[in-house]
Amino acid sequence: MVAYFSMEIGIDPDVPTYAGGLGVLAGDFVRAAADLGLPLVAVTLLHRKGYFRQRLDPRGGQREEPAEWNVEAHLDALPARATVTINGRPVVIRAWRRRVAGLGGAAVAVYFLDTDVEENTNDDRALSHFLYGGDAAYRLAQEAVLGIGGVRMLRALGYDHVHRFHLNEGHSALLVLELVSERLRAAGRATAGEDDIDAVRQMCVFTTHTPVPAAHDQFPPDLAERVIGAHPMSQLMHRCCYGGALNMTYLALNFSRYVNGVAMRHGEISRRMFGGYHIDAITNGVHAAGWVSEPFRALFDRHIPGWRADNFSLRYAVSIPTPEIWDAHVAAKLELLEFVNRHQSPPFDPAVLTIGFGRRASAYKRADLLVSDPARLRAIARAAGGLQVVYAGKAHPRDEEGKRIIERVLRAREALGTDVPIVYLEDYDMAMARMLTAGADVWLNTPHPPLEASGTSGMKAALNGVPSLSVLDGWWIEGHVEGVTGWAIGSDGRMPRAETTDNAAHAAALYDTLERTVAPLFYHNRDGFTTVMRYAIALNGSFFTAQRMLQEYVAKAYGAGAIRHPASAPEPPREVVTA
Ligand SMILES: *Cc1c(COP(=O)(O)O)cnc(C)c1O
Question: How much is the pLDDT for 233?
Answer without folding.
Answer: 67
